[in-house]
Amino acid sequence: MAAIKFEKALQRLETIVTELEQGELSLDDSLRIFEEGVKLSKTCLKMLDEAERKIEILVKDKDGRKRLQAFSVGDEDDSPEIEGE
Fold it and tell me: What is the pLDDT of residues 13-46, one digit of tens each?
């Protein structure tokens, strides 16, 4: 499958779900787009995994060594101060 943007893949998945839910396609067409949907789903999951890895940030521990730490929305103690708050 050629490189596809996440948003386009997700939009196509939504279209596939709608078409399958309507139940107006032949069995062959339903199987074909279902298969396409499975491939798109795997592609989206792979893109999300890659994005999650990119979100990992380098932080220094107490000894000054760098280590990887996964970014978490709940980690407010380490978040930078924002002016105007």
Answer: 999 999 999 999 999 999 999 999 999 999 999 9
pLDDT score, position 81: 40
DSSP string, 18-81: HHHHHT-S-HHHHHHHHHHHHHHHHHHHHHHHHHHHHH-EEEE-TTS-EEEE---TT--TTSPP
Domain limits, the chain: 6-54
Contacts of 61 (CB under 8 A, 6+ apart): 67
In angstroms, the CA 27 to CA 49 distance is 33
Q: Please list the residues that pair with 52 across neighbouring strands.
A: none
End-to-end CA gap in the chain: 46
